[in-house]
From TrEMBL:
It holds the Pfam family Sacchrp_dh_NADP. It comes from Nocardioides glacieisoli. Keywords: ATP-binding, Nucleotide-binding. GO terms for molecular function: ATP binding. This is ATP-binding protein. InterPro entries: NAD(P)-bd_dom_sf (IPR036291), Sacchrp_dh-like_C (IPR032095), Sacchrp_dh_NADP-bd (IPR005097). Residues 149-406 form the Saccharopine dehydrogenase-like C-terminal domain.
Length: 422
């Protein structure tokens, strides 16, 4: 396996640090628009293992499908791993196919909704552009594995596992994510600094969240999707491992678009513990028009308001030393168990920032995202996972993934997941 990873931000950097410990690949090319950043990631990864020579840096414009394809051909990539934010999904996705390489991402192509239509009208959904090209990938005999980060990603693996091993009937697949993370300044005061891309947070949280219901679908998958206003239906969810109760709200996310395609359930939702401060900031940004991606002219210079907001905040890759607490990603499944009795189970994965910083020099949110595509690549390398077309994690066997993730090193990745009955 020869991997071309596009993106050397927080998640890409963490993925390289994780991957260097494994032997399943022949080459790992780290490509970024900023060559210096790619070189920094290569240095950080190779410094973790004596004699390591599989990592090299390259420059690429992720917005240019032809440039991605050209680089993939040049480095003889078998797999293109997309580690940049969602606005670059389609050119990287297209470039990988043009180069006859398989593809993985952690966020799917963007949604588009007509602003004058009612909330219930979904419009173009996350991933629609990619699924529309599934036939091209099938004809080419190549695999595009979508949404294989943590959310989406691990929760989707949990959904398949729950359907296969735990439940006879699923009432709801409810992704529920929360944390008790705090970021402090040099004086020990709490400061506002998102754990991952602010550009992506704005995109996810201010778009109308999607829900899927079997009753609405009436046999037609697409009819089952509908949207709600942002921050709808708040609920307090009690997270494990000392995180405790966190208020969660509906957020637009890929799990809702992926799970109903391969897993039988009556309802699919995604809720995230944003917190009162984040919701207030997002609402203010929207009111001021600072969430817009349309360029405006400032003193003769064209700038995107959202890009400016993101640029004004700390790079998520740099805040690890000032972060404390844990983050939890998981799936709350309700329905009927294999024994015919009602069952409510939370499958989850918790990462303590102190652990990820100590072991990898990566803050916990980006590390938790980065480990899952590396596990997936290893399963693809040894043939445990395989397929053609455009697939989600739910389409592939879950147990090998969960076993490899949790198994102690060096056999596995030493990152156990948990399960609670509620």
């Amino acid at each position: 396996m020869r991997v071309l990873m596009v993106g050397a931000g927080g998640v890409g950097d963490a993925a390289a640090r994780i991957a260097v410990e494994r032997d399943f690949f022949e080459a790992w090319v780290v490509a970024d628009y900023d060559l210096g950043r790619a070189e920094h990631t290569v240095a950080a990864a190779t410094g973790r293992r004596a004699g390591e020579e599989r990592f090299v840096a390259a420059q690429v414009d992720a917005s240019d499908a032809d440039a991605v394809a050209a680089l993939a051909r040049e480095v003889r990539a078998t797999h293109v791993f997309n580690a940049v934010d969602p606005r670059f999904v389609i050119p990287i996705f297209s470039g990988a196919l043009a180069a006859d390489a398989d593809y993985l991402d952690m966020a799917m192509s963007l949604s588009v909704r007509h602003p004058d239509r009612p909330y219930e009208e979904v419009g173009v959904k996350l991933g629609d552009e990619q699924f529309a090209r599934a036939g091209e990938w099938e004809s080419a005999g190549r695999l595009a594995l979508l949404g294989i980060g943590v959310e989406p990603g691990l929760s989707d693996v949990f959904a398949r596992y729950a359907a296969d091993e735990l439940f006879d009937h699923i009432d709801e697949l409810g992704t529920r994510d929360g944390a008790n993370l705090v970021i402090r300044d040099d004086d020990g005061n709490e400061v506002f600094a998102p754990g991952f891309s602010m550009w992506t947070i704005i995109e996810e949280c201010l778009n109308p969240p999607v829900v899927w219901e079997r009753e609405r679908a009436a046999g037609d998958l697409e009819q089952g999707f509908f949207t709600l206003p942002p921050f709808s239906e708040p609920e307090v969810f009690d997270f494990p491992d000392g995180i405790g109760p966190v208020e969660c709200v509906h957020v637009e996310h890929e799990e809702v678009l992926l799970m109903p395609r391969w897993v039988d359930a009556d309802r699919v939702t995604f809720k995230y513990g944003l917190g009162e401060e984040m919701i207030s900031i997002l609402r203010t940004l929207h009111t001021l028009g600072l969430d817009s991606t349309e360029p405006v002219t400032v003193k003769g210079v064209q700038v995107s308001p959202r890009d400016v907001v993101a640029a004004c905040l700390p790079d998520p890759a740099t805040i690890g030393p000032r972060m404390e607490g844990k983050t939890c990603a998981g799936l709350f499944v309700t329905g009927t168990g294999k024994d015919g009795a009602p069952r409510s189970t939370y499958l989850y994965h918790v990462v303590d920032n102190a652990d990820s910083m100590r072991d990898y020099g990566a803050q916990c949110v980006v590390w938790q995202t980065a480990i899952n595509p590396v596990v997936a690549l290893e399963l693809l390398a040894d043939g445990t996972w395989s397929g053609t077309g455009v697939l989600g994690p739910e389409a592939l066997p879950p147990k090998p993934f969960l076993d490899l993730l949790a198994a102690p090193k060096p056999e596995g990745y030493g990152s156990p997941w948990g399960m609670e009955e509620r």
